[in-house]
Specification:
- The chain has about 475 residues and is an all-beta fold.
- The protein is built from no helices and 35 strands.
- The chain starts with 17 loop residues before the first strand and ends with a strand.
- Bound molecules: beta-D-fructofuranose.
Length: about 475
């Protein structure tokens, strides 16, 4: 394949070549941020999983490092699947799932999954230490360990699928990274709650504990929404070391765009709880494969609680990407206005005054003209914020949407990076992330309003590094 640069991101972490999926082993260790990720270096398709690796001083500017883990031992022959990184008394330690196909590659009905350890003394080269945990009887899908330490005790959450094909999160307790006992089933799916819960994570934020995971196969019939079999979200509740997880909310999706999966959290240098996710989706077309690569991660996002709700916004470090700024004066939009002819790497802040706007639809568009490419608009009739993408040449077409918040103003913070868009609503109330595939001559950024006018009360546009 020809490595082109039409879709390769300017400021998101993507593989140097080949395939990427889940972020793994996100950690701040010894003064440096590390991001590992599910990686197939030999082609732009998923294959025997390696762990790619990159490091950064600020979670924004990344430097590629040599591949950290490669499959090949009898216990991880067919893949070093997802996992995490911890600081074990000064030793950077990776805990990951060793995956083996027992019948044919891709046949999920006969697999062996075990948890494995690898350690490093220099943070670059990793030495495998072998298996540290095997599954309980009757469980085959058993993967994606996430570990933390609390008052000297190690804890691990693990994704699993029970004998009745319901997803669950298992909680283990460890005396060391090599000795684990099952503590309890921390949470499990009801009949329609998904058949496998991938990539669990469990952490405190604000006044609550959150179980974050990526269930496969949740049944959802929302009518208005595009939906596939994969989603990622959280259950809010309370937990005290060694006791049950008391849930006080149902599963809530974390991001309402098309492409957001397998988020993992870590604590930043100053203690902020930050997540990054894979900004792509299983079973979706990935046109960047033509250029020899696929997959990228979202911007790192700080999680925080506001009024008891989990919110997310790009880490403050993202502001270091800003170059020239261009203010957008308060005004009324009643026809299409071009903001920029060529938007490949930009950030846009816009505040719409909903109470002063009477257009049927208004928002921003990226393409040659409105209605061809990407639109992010307010639909006055349904009172929803809609993210719509239309790339028929790649069979990528469809919208996702969220209800408009009950406020007079709607503030949007939008990042466009060649083949992606990330939208943050009202300073973190909601996020929408999607991959987009405009051709180089289809990157006109526009404001539009149809059948009426819409009022902008604030706005700023930045070119990003
Ligand atoms: C989630 C996932 C994980 C697994 C990895 C394999 O996207 O399916 O459960 O460890 O990807 O690449």
């Amino acid at each position: 394949a020809q490595r082109g640069n039409t879709y390769y991101p300017d400021f998101h972490l993507a593989p140097p070549a080949g395939w990427m999926n889940d972020p793994n082993g996100l950690i701040y260790f010894d003064g440096l941020y590390h991001a590992f990720y599910q990686h197939h270096p030999m082609s732009a398709d998923w294959g025997p999983m390696h762990w790619g690796h990159a490091t950064s001083h600020d979670m924004i500017h990344w430097q590629h490092q040599p591949i950290a883990l490669a499959p090949g031992n009898d216990y991880d022959r067919d893949g070093c699947f997802s996992g995490c990184a911890v600081n074990d008394n000064g030793i950077l330690s990776l805990i990951y799932t060793g995956h083996v196909w027992l019948k044919e590659a891709g046949d999920d009905s006969a697999i062996r999954e075990v948890q494995c350890l690898a350690t490093s003394t220099d943070g670059i080269y990793f030495e495998k230490q072998g298996i540290v945990l095997t599954p309980p009887d009757g469980i085959m899908h058993f993967r994606d360990p996430k570990i933390w330490q609390e008052n000297g005790t190690w804890w691990m959450v693990l994704g699993a699928r029970d004998a009745a094909n319901c997803g669950q999160t298992l909680l283990y307790k460890g005396n060391s990274l090599r000795e684990w006992q099952l503590d309890r089933i921390l949470a499990h799916a009801d009949v329609d709650g998904g058949y496998m819960w991938e990539c669990p994570d469990f952490f405190p934020c604000g006044d609550h504990h959150y179980l974050m995971f990526s269930p496969q196969g949740i049944q959802q019939n929302t009518g208005y929404q595009y939906r596939n079999r994969f989603q990622s979200g959280v259950i809010q509740g309370h937990w005290q070391q060694g006791s049950a997880f008391i849930q006080n909310q149902k599963f809530t999706e974390l991001d309402n765009g098309h492409d957001f999966y397998a988020p993992q959290s870590f604590t930043a240098a100053d203690g902020r709880r930050v997540i990054m996710a894979w900004m792509d989706m299983w079973e979706s077309a990935m046109p960047s494969k033509q250029e020899g690569w696929a997959g990228c991660l979202t911007l790192p996002r700080e999680l925080f609680e506001r009024d008891g709700h989990l919110c997310q916004r790009p880490v403050i470090e993202a502001k270091s990407l800003r170059q020239q700024s261009q203010p957008i004066e308060p005004h009324s939009v009643s026809q299409t206005e071009v903001l920029l002819d060529h938007s490949s790497a930009i950030e846009l802040e816009l505040v719409w005054d909903i109470s002063q706007s009477n257009a049927e639809r208004y928002g921003i568009a990226l393409g040659n003209k409105v209605g061809d490419g990407l639109e992010l608009y307010i639909d006055s009739q349904s009172q929803r914020l809609v993210l719509w993408r239309h790339y028929p040449e790649y069979e990528l077409d469809g919208y996702r949407s969220i209800p408009l918040p009950a406020s007079d103003k709607l503030s949007l913070r939008i990042f466009i990076d060649r083949s992606s868009v990330e939208v943050f609503v009202n300073d973190g109330d909601a996020a929408m992330s999607s991959r987009i595939y405009p051709q180089p001559n289809e990157r006109k950024l526009m404001l539009f309003a149809s059948h009426g006018s819409a009022v902008i009360s604030e706005g700023m546009l930045w070119q990003l590094k």
